[in-house]
Amino acid sequence: MNFQLIGVLIRLRYRLLWAKTRTRNGKIALFFAGYLLLVMVISLLAAGGVGAGMTAVRSGKGTLIAGALLGGIYAQAIVASVVLGFGMTAIFSETELRRYPVRALERRLTRHFIGIVDPYWLLFLALDLGIALGLYLFGAGSFWFGLAAVLLLFCSNYVAARVLGMLVDRLMMKKGGSAIMLVCMMLLGFLPATLGPVIRRHPRILDAVARLWQSTPPAGAAVAMTQSNLAALSGLGLILLWMAALLAVLVVLERRPPKTRVAQASKVAWETPFDRIGAIFGPQTGPLVAHWLRFYSRHNRFRTIYPLALPLAAFLQFFLGRRLGSAGSFPISLSVFLILGFIGTGQFAVNQFGYVGGGFRRFLLLPTGAAAAFRAGSYMFIMLSAALILPAAVLWSLFMPARFDPRAIVMLVAASVFSLFLFHGIGLWTSLLGPRRGNYNQSFGNDLSFAGNIVVVGGMLSLLFLPQVAAKQWPNAITPDYWLVAILAALLAAVFYFTSLHFATALFRVKRESLMVLLEGKS
Amino acid sequence: MDAIRITNLVKHYGAVTAVENLSLSVRSGRIFGFLGPNGSGKSTTIGCLTGLLDPTSGTVELLGEVFDSENAAIKKRIGVMPETLGLFDPLYAQEFLAFVARMFGLDEVTTRQRVTELLDALELTDSSKTLAEYSTGMRKRVAFAAAVIHSPEVLFLDEPFESIDPAGVALMKQWLRRFADQGRTVFMTTHVLETVERICHDIAIITRPGKLVWEGDVTLLANDGSLTYNGQEFRTLESLFLHLTGEKYTDLNWL
Q1: DSSP string, A434-467
Q2: Is the alpha carbon torsion for A457, A460, A463, A465 positive or negative?
Q3: What percent of chain B has pLDDT over 90?
């Protein structure tokens, strides 16, 4: 094993990282990321880990509580990694590493070592360590067994996320993959609500689930952290077994790389629906809108996310509605319609040029104003998101209200239009001020900049919870009586969008050279 | 008439000077070779001439009009094959060319006709592959087709012949000669000096950072003539180029 060269490659990854942080934006991002990480680690270690350890020991159910906590962390790490793409960035691809005189095993080791020391994974390591420390401090386990369990659990967590990520990626590349994924997500969402009554009727199921749970890595780690001698060793052995199995799957998957699927046209047509839709925008902008539509229609990630938007909204309505009951149903509908305004296209609209790569240069050579492609792209996102609103309104009026109230429909549609213009307006700015070069061929993962993530994730969470909070504070404010306010808000958001479009167009001219450098991968 | 006129062009990237006070002009109907060593500012100059980059100072005139990146009327009359090709990988060649043609204002019938003819002539008829799946040479052919599809009056080509097979290069040269014979202008950069000797009428040689060191007529070489610099005669373009850009020989005893 050529550890020296592996070390050189790992150092190279950090040299590249440091080279990026030498820029002004890089320093700001580094400062914020470092600060946030520090605060989170300290608070989690202190409050989460030690507190959990204390609770576990005092309750006399140390193993059970530790297992539940570790399981939660394990699952969260996988979900955030696979769905949001955190900690999944491949710094060096297999092909890039083939340039160097390293063997297959060394290349794999290099890639995954770089992957596992990502700050995202270190955060989960800190959480696991916090629990182990808490248990040890309150006398529930051995320090060294705890440490070994944390390290093994951490590694198995990373490998499990990688394996699941690769499986999902492959699924999305298959025809009908996004539909299967949708069904899986729905099933996962409905599972807790469905399982409750079933378990109440058949309590033995719970025993079977508990037995299954005992053979998972977090349960093994909990045993190793809270027991001693043979029992602790058996816990460590269980994690090792899982690690071996997951690594075997990972190796098999990596040895059989998937064929990238680009939506194939058996015969390339001269006149397509994209061209017909584009024609609505006139001869200057029309071909650009058609081009954007064609471009994104072949983007695996877009093909996954956009069709999921409406079912996801329906799922949110159903799921949250069940939890909060009829009293909270209108604020929930409001949340759902607000989210619908940008959920389908949001992560693309905040980084509009992120996937065009060298094609960006072509836009600047076309005989139009420099920002024409920028405007056309935004129109396309607006149009696609707007197309979801009407079907959603029809479905809502068919299935939701006990008594049909047209004001409610108007208010919900206006709320959607409000978030449509607001977030696509913000998206114009983030596309220019926080762009990031994305991977066109990847179906999942996070290709957004820090600013892009703040807008998409922050926007989604705030739209989800703000109407509920407002409804609690002012119960009479979130009702269809205020439909005119919603229309006014939508109008204001439209003004914001068009004003942004005007000023961002001017900014585009200033930023286009730096955008070109970034998107062509030269910085 | 000058098709291209550059006056005191300066381009800075922060503290780095890429082009320094460059002035030159290119007459209509000429094939102009723009030469220089790596990093001398050739692509930056083409970027300023085609609206990709804004000059720090100086002016660019194309076809008798002052040109900047927002001058769509002039952009319509020029064709550009950029250094990085500017292709959209998920598109098919036909779709890409049709998109470019429509953007340059060609009608439906002309678009179909020209796209079909270009794809045939440049042997890009494999419609099962997207641009991402094409070889480097085929991608260059597509970028070349996109540059000429609207029959521009001035053609800017940044290293057009690299990676293209000899048959493709021969075809492109033939087109470029006919293009110039019709009174249109070609401005190209390349490192293949033999090609420049055979195809170009005039050349300019720049050194780092974008400083003009020689310009003149190279057709003299085809008639057994020579090029002169400071009273010194050069029988080949290569000898002049190496003289101007600094010939260097370092012996590596381990190689």
Answers
A1: S-----TT-SSS----HHHHIIIIIHHHHHHHHH
A2: negative
A3: 76
Residue among B54, B88, B128 minimizing CB distance to A295: B88
| Domain edges within chain B | 1-77+182-255
CB-CB contact of B168 with B136 (8 Å): no
Tell me which chain A residues have a C-beta less than 8 angstroms from the C-beta of B132. Answer: 262
Our CA-based measurement puts residue B226 at a distance from the nearest CA of chain A, in whole angstroms, of 38
A-B contacts at Cβ under 8 angstroms: 87
Q: B121-145: per-residue pLDDT in tens?
A: 999 988 888 999 999 999 999 999 9
Span A70-90, average pLDDT? 80
Cβ separation A440–B84 shorter than 8 A: no
The answer to whether A66 touches A131, Cβ cutoff 8 Å, is yes
Largest CA distance in chain B: 63
**Do the Cβ atoms of A268 and B85 come within 8 Å?**
no
Is A356 an 8 Å CB contact of chain B? yes
Q: Which of B60, B50, B62, B57 is nearest to B20 (CA)?
A: B57
Q: Which residue of B has its CA nearest to A520?
A: B84
The ipTM is 0.93
Q: What is the pLDDT of residues A121-131, one digit of tens each?
A: 888 888 888 88
Q: Do A295 and B91 touch (CB under 8 A)?
A: yes
- pLDDT, tens digit, 9 for 90 and up, residues B170-212: 999 999 999 999 999 999 999 889 889 989 999 999 998 889 9
Q: What is the DSSP letter of B31?
A: E
Q: Out of 2.40.50.100, 3.30.450.40, 3.40.50.10260, 3.40.50.300, which CATH number does the structure's domain B1-77+182-255 have?
A: 3.40.50.300
- Alpha carbons A139 and A313: distance in angstroms, whole number: 47
Q: What is the sign of the dihedral through the CA atoms of A118, A121, A123 and A128?
A: negative
3-class SS at B161? coil
- pLDDT (tens digit, 9 = 90+) per residue, A47-64? 566 666 666 666 667 788
Spatial separation of the C-alpha atoms in residues A348 and A354, rounded to whole Å: 8
Q: Domain boundaries in chain A?
A: 3-255, 273-519
CA distance A444 to chain B (A): 18
Q: Which residues pair with A95 in a beta bridge?
A: none
Residues in chain A closer than 8 A to B52 (CB atoms): 361, 364-365, 513, 516
